[in-house]
Amino acid sequence: MGGISMEPMLQGRGLGKVFGAHQALAGVDIDLFPGEVHALLGENGAGKSTLIKILTGAYQPDSGAVVLEGAEVAFRDPLQAQAAGIGTVYQEVNLVPNLSVAENLYLGHQPMRWGMLNKRAMHDGAREILAGYGLEIDVRAELGSFSVAVQQIVAIARAVKLSGKVLVLDEPTASLDRAEVESLFEVIAKLKARGLAVVFITHFLDQVFAIADRVTVLRNGKLVSTQAISGLSRTDVVRMMLGKDVVFAHSPVTEIGASGPALAEFKGLGRKGSVAPFDLTLHQGEVVGVAGLLGSGRTEMARLMFGVDLADTGSISLGGPLTLRSPRQAVAAGMGFCPEDRKVDGIFGELSVRENIVIALQAKLGWFKALSRDEQDDIAGRFAEALDIRAADHNMPVKLLSGGNQQKVILARWMAIDPKLLILDEPTRGIDVGAHAEIVRTINRLREDGLALLVISSELDEVVAYSSRVVVMRDRAMVAELKGADIAPQVIVQAIAAQEAP
Amino acid sequence: MKLRVQRLITPQTIALVAVLLFNWLLFPGFFSVEWKDGRLFGSLIDVLNRGAPVAILAIGMTMVIATKGVDLSVGAVMAIAGAVAATGVESGLTVWQAVPLALVAGLLCGLWNGVLVAVLDIQPIIATLVIMVAGRGIAQLITQGFIVTFNDPSLIYIGTGSALGLPMPVLIAVALLILTTLIVRRTALGLLVEAVGVNRSAARFAGISAMSLLILVYVFSGFCAAVAGIIVAADIHGADANNAGLWLELDAILAVVIGGTSLLGGRFSIPMAVLGAMIIQAMNTGILVSGFPPQFNLIVKAGIIIAILVLQSPVASRLFKRA
């Protein structure tokens, strides 16, 4: 913390934000000091982006206040925040790729002379600015002709030029390779030395430990803790993110009976740049939990198993050898997949609850075996009751339901095809407590019915409660398979946080 | 029964009735229909007859738009189909050979569009622009640059003949409307197409073969365009590669939108799109019989369309709900 002055540059005090019935952020405090790199961590839906959007003026808080250099501020939009000194660089560089580097740096603030664009001043200025970042490139060339890393630095340079007090970096390293990350970190170190407060959002713990001075962890919209990185271990950070204090007296593994015969075998399944080849066998009547942080390859693994992405190595056997070219074939073989991002990959917002429930079955039956309206009503009614889906009417658009009920609709969709293997990616994320309990109950019931389930979850309590095995993903590879007494939050956290093998 | 009547009161039906009443005010004989030479005559029949090609295009276009796509090529495909049919009969083919050949040409154009959109994942507006531009060139190659006229009575019958007292184009459009609606709603096609239009990614995850559905709707749109092209060629006894179906793709899109199908895909209604085509034709006819200087035509048309679209807009429907 050396070099950090006493007066915070930017403060959030008791920030809260509500979307509809969902409390995205509740009473979060954060202090950003000049000359510090402050890592902001949390799983998806933890409230990181909501917090950032409030600090940078994209959202207005419903409660609490933003304080800049001791004075309370209320930004109407990001432009105002930028003018006040708070700049943001997003994961996807949001500059104009077909303008030149210099034009991008000066867009909206071009140097003028006699009412004309002063190109020479602009190019000289741009060269000078970028030299400060150790970047010597042709500033007249199109931005899009440079690598993402260079574009990222140009974006940072622009944000710093326009703002200059606080710089927010939202997953800046997500699409960079190792060397590019290094050069980005050099840039961040320079900015830190210049006295900027840098907020750094990432999913990579290595990077947090490499560059951050302090770390703030959010979970479920609430502040978990803000601590100096020097006093923390990787395990501490993972534990804060996943909310696991070491207070689990027992794990109910013993309650789960022996699983049935092998149902599906995934052998050496892998895809370059996505997930390293892994082996996994699933048995009838068992739940295999998948633990790992975001970006660990857990979702990529599920996508390979369901044929969303095509594997370039390995083989699958599910009642005979199976080659997946699309999810359609996976469904035909008796698989179902509740994706992590319900809105994007799951629900058909404009379609009714009934249609959302019967759609996979209908797709499986084909075009010409249409389910009659009566059959649809019957199926929708049956599963809505079984899963306690709270909809006033099965003909209302599914987008009007709460997140939890939407998730149950997707679960119902797969139960309707009577699957053998269900893959659930974060089935309980961002949903209310009641729906949460219902989904966990359903997982257990399906297991008892003899299904094989693969459940990806950040909720270690849950994973421990229903899994008979847990596989751990890290750095896009399966790194551990835990059984029996090893299925305990502490062991899982340690496996997730373990250092990379040398 | 009460509910059914209410379901008939939509912005589209109100608009159609309003336009028709307006026409009647301008031209008192508008609603008179008479029986002559074994068929019906009158301005109303004329609206149906003239509106048939766009209505047929709109049937295909509805399916495409339901998948969140658009087919800009239908006007040019009409020209190609007309050219094939006309050149066919002129070079000695019978109608039973020339017309299927023209339909196959439309299907092939649709297949091309479908492959570009579904397999190569090109944006529909760009993918279908290719044939919109190149199609007239292809049609010119087929007609070798001339307007090919023909005297084959069977082919002409498709455009100007009548049966059951109604002009052939009207009968063809009605048959296509009923057939398509039945197929789409009695099979699962309608639901699956809507699902692809609402969320293509989720459709893939749910095991729907979005690719074959997308190809299918473009092929069907090409087929409808070919039917419309044959009718138009038969009507004027010739194939004009430059002007047949010119700008009709825009009328077809407009008809679908007036029919309440969103360009964002999803829910669709084929009967409503056909109604939309009728509204457009009723306006065209009304402006024509009203004696307005023709230079006002497009402006009046635009004004009425704006009124219909405003009535359908989310803002207006919210206002109605509150009232």
Please describe what this structure looks like.
The complex is a heterodimer of chains A (502) and B (323). By secondary structure, chain A is an alpha/beta fold. Chain A folds into 2 domains: 10-98 and 142-232, P-loop containing nucleotide triphosphate hydrolases (Rossmann fold, 3-Layer(aba) Sandwich); 252-497, P-loop containing nucleotide triphosphate hydrolases (Rossmann fold, 3-Layer(aba) Sandwich). Chain A has helices at residues 48-55, 78-84, 101-106, 119-131, 148-162, 178-193, 205-211, 234-242, 298-306, 327-332, 342-346, 353-365, 373-386, 403-415, 433-448, 460-466, 489-497, and strands at 10-19, 22-32, 37-41, 63-68, 71-73, 86-89, 112-113, 116-117, 166-170, 197-201, 214-219, 222-228, 262-271, 275-283, 286-291, 313-318, 321-322, 335-338, 421-425, 452-456, 469-474, 477-483. In chain A, the strands form 5 sheets. Chain A has a 6-stranded mixed beta sheet, sandwiched between helices. Chain A is elongated. Residues 246-256 of chain A have low confidence and may be disordered. Chain B is mainly alpha-helical and 323 residues long. Chain B has one domain (43-313): Orthogonal Bundle (ABC transporter involved in vitamin B12 uptake, BtuC). Chain B is built from 15 helices and 6 strands. Chain B has helices at residues 2-8, 11-26, 43-66, 74-90, 95-119, 124-143, 153-160, 168-186, 189-198, 200-205, 210-236, 248-258, 270-290, 297-312, 314-322, and strands at residues 33-36, 39-42, 148-149, 162-163, 166-167, 238-239. Chain B has a two-stranded antiparallel sheet. In chain B, a hairpin with a 2-residue loop joins strand 1 and strand 2. In chain B, helix 3 packs antiparallel against helix 11. The two termini of chain B are 24 Å apart. Classes of the chains: A alpha/beta (502), B mainly alpha (323). The interface between A and B is medium-sized, with 32 and 21 residues.
